[in-house]
Amino acid sequence: KDKLSLSKILAIDKMTITDEPAKSNSDFPWYFLKKLMMVNVAARNMTCTSDCESDDESENAEDSDSSNTDHRPNPLDIITALFLCSDDFVQQEMARKMSTCQFSVPLLLPNCDTKQCTLMLWAMRDIVKKYRPQFCSESKSFIEERIVLSELPMISFVRLGECSLSKSEILNKLLSNSQQYHDTFVHYNMECGDSPRAISNGITEITWYLPCGNTNIDIFSKPVAVANLRGDIASFKTQYSFLCQTSAAVFVFFDQLDSECSLLTNQHHKAQIFLVGNGESKCCTSDALKEVENKLGLTKNNIIIRKKQKNNADFVKSFRKKVRDVVEHSEMKMTIEQMADIAHKLGILVDENSPECQTGKKNAEAITVEIQDILKYKEDQLRCQGEIWKELASLEKEEFRLRKLGSKNIEDYKSELKKHREELRKKQNSYDMSTAMTCFINAISTTPRSATGFGALSLLHT
């Protein structure tokens, strides 16, 4: 089937020019896309008209315990479905704009039909981040680079079995300072209550905390990637194994632990394991914890239990300190590009391995490999956009403003400007086609999707 394309979602029609809320569940994907393309940070806060709500009520009248909000689709299901139905261009555009809105983006995308997941390396190729670690604050220098090439420690959060603690809610508070709260991860009811049929089950989201260099604002002094696996790791062992091999630390949320706990003890992992339990849960017993602690070789520092007397703010504060210690002292760092090797070994697909992406990447590299000095490269390969282009732009402005007219006749002056403009255009047209432009035109002329690789040309902006 045809994938959703950029031309489709950017088309101007009745739906795009109105700002009405969704009238039915089928409207939610388009509502989200429209808001996302406008970089609206409230894109995931989907509203429904009273007609939609009354329809839901009539369909579920027998279920007296359900509220209207429960009848609306999980925003994460909508995002997962959109990524599965979109082509490479749309996936890159969605990932870039979701990152701009400070939303988490898919790292491992599940496919409920094939039961496989895909590492979304290519989808994140276009995301460029700018940050300043605190050790750079004196020189006031910023680091700007594509995020898939940034070598950062990754901290992962997973759930084992049922869990009375909301992992996504804790993560949002963990990454928000006291002055400004932001829902980086979708918090939809209680995470442990996710439907087993939800298409987003098994998705691993990723976001990045990037410091600005101000000790009064920064939560972490160094940049860090934060991953969140949705669903029970007992059902998504491949994703869990991937996180154990790519993360500096994995925080496992639980209510009940099996003393054998083979899922935790049999994993080949490089990450530190932290167990996070709720002290109010009757299933969180010290005996089971002690057995697992011994088998995994954990210390008391790796066990985090929320005490009954501790409120949310105090728990998040102590939890943040644990994460900060890992970030500060971890030597385990990896780029998303390097994660592709581990994905291959685990049988995880990599979106960048598709023929279209490989062809596009090859075309892009044929151009970017020649770039040493950006200014000199533009002068040699983009000659039509150099000084002549600037002079033409200046002439066009003068034709309308006539600021240098002086005592000259208006018509004569306009004729003089027009003649000068034609001479410049003639000189511009005299240039032969540059090697870079020839390569670019040949690539996009073969098949539209072969041009996907030109997202790599964002290198010119870094």
Q: Could you explain how this protein is built, in words?
A:
This protein has three domains: 1-98, no CATH class; 104-353, Rossmann fold; 355-461, no CATH class. 40% of the residues lie in helices and 13% in strands. The chain contains 18 helices and eleven strands. The chain has helices at residues 6-9, 14-17, 28-37, 50-59, 68-71, 75-85, 88-100, 167-174, 237-246, 262-265, 286-296, 312-329, 336-345, 355-368, 374-381, 387-401, 410-429, 435-446, and strands at 105-111, 116-119, 128-131, 143-146, 154-160, 204-209, 224-232, 249-254, 272-278, 303-306, 349-350. Strands 10-9-8-5-7-6-1-2-11 form a nine-stranded mixed β-sheet, with helices on both faces. Helix 10 links the parallel strand 8 and strand 9 (272-278). Helix 14 runs antiparallel to helix 18 (435-446) and helix 16 runs antiparallel to helix 17 (410-429). The longest helix is centred in the C-terminal third of the chain and has 20 residues, at 410-429. The protein is elongated, with a radius of gyration of 27 Å. Residues 54-69 and 449-462 have low confidence and may be disordered.
